[in-house]
Design a protein that fits this description.
Structural class: alpha+beta
Radius of gyration: 20 Å
CATH topology of the largest domain: Phosphoribosyl-aminoimidazole Synthetase, Chain A, domain 2
Largest sheet: 7 strands, mixed
Strand content: 15-25%
CATH class of the largest domain: Alpha Beta
Number of helices: 9
Number of strands: 13
Helix content: 25-40%
CATH superfamily of the largest domain: PurM-like C-terminal domain
Order of helices and strands: HHEEEHEHEEEHHEHEHEHEEE
């Protein structure tokens, strides 16, 4: 175990507090105070299947997923932990590939992996490898994002096209023999969130639309605000390949997972500036307004179809595609 940790993890995550190899990471308080006035803390576990897919893998997903959970709360991501559960017999080259991907993703996102843990369980007690990452970040003074602050007349914005991660995983599993050029949209969102908040400081709430997709986020917003989210199907940014896969499998792209898409609610008066700023950033070229908040029906998501009729879009029941993130 000691050799595994030294040769795989410490070699990759060489930097900051992890160099001391103690039972905890030691972080200086002064830089945190300088960055903001509140600490954000989140954790998530990742069990994707397959482990490697176009545009990403389990390691990249584990880092970006936690970085984005911090970012959509308005936090500047700073440090992550990494806990790994390995099944006996898991190939070392695959582990090295996943860990190297984590290191690269952390570098790209500007965060450090500062502490971690590794456990090996007997064959059959786990499915290859599970990864948990927890993250801390600092929220700059004056940022206060909460769905309860949403008001009638606000608009709904997304930064990119929908469903690319979910569609990519579906195709990568190979069960259907489908070939596509799709890649996961897995990317850090904090630069995009910063760009949005600089020009739209009255932004009410932001969420990343991971498992459960855009529909789940909008249902949560509607319930928290006790208002109705109305979206227009004609405005939804959707690639033809995602649409085609969804139609073949009978899935609704509104529920497909994303790993580089956020949903934001902001005043209509700030929407033009928000779109202009986002479209200048990587991952924001397809930013668009997809709907608005109305008074009724309270707590519901309503979509106006391409044919002009309205239908309720409920919270997802069950899981369209398990083991996706």
């Amino acid at each position: 175990m000691r050799a595994l940790i030294d040769d795989i993890f410490l070699d990759a995550f060489s930097g900051g507090a992890i160099l001391h190899a103690e039972d905890q990471a030691l972080l200086d308080i002064d830089p945190l105070r300088q960055a903001g006035d509140r600490l954000a803390f989140t954790t998530d576990s990742f069990v994707v299947d397959p482990l490697f897919f176009p545009g990403g893998d389990l390691g990249k997903l584990a880092v970006i997923g936690t970085v984005n959970d911090l970012a959509v709360g308005g936090a500047i991501p700073l440090a992550l932990s990494c806990a790994v559960i390995l099944e006996e017999g898991f190939p070392i080259p695959e582990l090295q590939r996943i860990v190297e991907s984590m290191r690269q993703a952390a570098d790209d996102a500007g965060v450090k992996i500062v502490t971690g843990d590794t456990k090996v369980v007997q064959r059959g007690a786990a499915d290859k490898i599970f990864v948990n990452t927890a993250g801390i970040g600092v929220i700059p003074e004056g940022r206060d994002l909460a769905a309860t602050t949403i008001v009638e007349g606000d608009v709904i914005l997304v930064n990119s096209s929908m469903g690319e991660h979910g569609a990519t995983i579906m195709a990568a599993r190979g069960d259907l023999g489908l070939e596509t050029q799709l890649q996961t949209d897995c990317r850090p969102l904090h630069s995009l969130v910063d760009a949005l908040l600089r020009v739209a400081p009255s932004t009410r709430a932001i969420r990343d639309a991971t498992r459960g997709g855009v529909a789940t986020v909008l249902n949560e917003f509607a319930q928290a605000a006790d208002l109705a989210c109305y979206i227009d199907e004609a405005r939804l940014p959707l690639k033809d390949e995602v649409r085609g896969l969804s139609e073949i499998l009978g899935l609704d792209p509104l529920y497909l997972a994303n790993e580089g898409l956020f949903v934001a609610v902001l005043p209509a008066s700030e929407s033009d500036a928000a779109l202009a700023a986002l479209r200048q950033e990587p991952g924001g070229a397809d930013a668009c307004i997809i709907g608005e908040l109305r008074h009724e029906p309270k707590g519901k998501l309503v979509m106006t179809s391409l044919f002009g009729g309205d239908r309720l879009v409920d919270m997802m029941s069950g899981d369209q595609l398990p083991r996706i993130c």
